[in-house]
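Incident log, support desk, overnight shift.

02:14 A customer reports that sequence design results differ from what the structure should imply. Their input is reproduced verbatim below. On-call engineer (initials T.W.) acknowledged and began investigating.
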């Protein structure tokens, strides 16, 4: 009878863990470098031009680190990306959603005066928040949706003053009206419902790492 050979360690799991760890390091480093560059006046103009590069990079890191991507994930990405952009289009051209505002030049290429990056931004916000809520092991779906939407409203509260300073967008009254936060909550909750309907299994720490870094980044720039 032949002796059973020792099984070798499963390398794919270790490889995935190493990739996740290295990606989180990249996320932290890029946010730290971005903060330093935007904080000091001599480097600020140069780093403002790098904002689109940073956001596209964060989306790329999410896409390549999503565990077992497939048609559902691609569909979810497309739905949130397109919905996010259309919401901003309606917001700018009607003023009925968030209030009266216009976009600056920092966010790069625009279509009908709406930066393409707004689709990226909404995808990053919804995905990272959705994964984070699941990481917290909150069982009732309604609580994950409600908690995630509240979290995104708090983040938007931190973003708004910085956004005007960095020429992301500008409000007619120089500050976001209350309806902006109400609408932000409703849209965030709706897109988090979409996230839940696609039933992604618990993902890596890449999404939560981006969300945490965003909170720290905008809080530190206040």
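02:41 Re-run completed on a clean worker. Output:
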């Amino acid at each position: 009878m032949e002796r059973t050979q020792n099984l070798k360690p499963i390398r794919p799991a270790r490889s995935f863990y190493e990739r996740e760890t290295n990606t989180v390091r990249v996320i932290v480093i890029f946010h730290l470098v971005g903060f330093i560059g935007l904080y000091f006046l001599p480097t600020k103009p140069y780093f403002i031009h790098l904002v689109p590069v940073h956001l596209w990079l964060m989306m790329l890191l999410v896409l390549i680190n999503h565990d077992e991507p497939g048609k559902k994930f691609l569909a979810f990405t497309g739905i949130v990306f397109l919905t996010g952009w259309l919401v901003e289009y309606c917001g700018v051209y009607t003023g009925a959603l968030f209030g009266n505002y216009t976009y600056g030049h920092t966010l790069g290429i625009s279509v009908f005066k709406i930066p393409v990056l707004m689709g990226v931004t909404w995808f990053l916000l919804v995905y990272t928040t959705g994964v984070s809520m699941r990481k917290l092991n909150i069982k009732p779906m309604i609580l994950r949706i409600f908690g995630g939407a509240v979290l995104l409203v708090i983040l938007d509260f931190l973003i708004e003053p910085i956004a005007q300073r960095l020429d992301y967008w500008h409000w007619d009254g120089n500050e976001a009206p209350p309806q902006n936060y109400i609408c932000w909550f409703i849209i965030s909750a709706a897109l988090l419902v979409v996230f839940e309907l696609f039933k992604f299994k618990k993902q890596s720490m890449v999404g939560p790492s981006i969300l945490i870094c965003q909170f720290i980044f905008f809080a530190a720039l206040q």
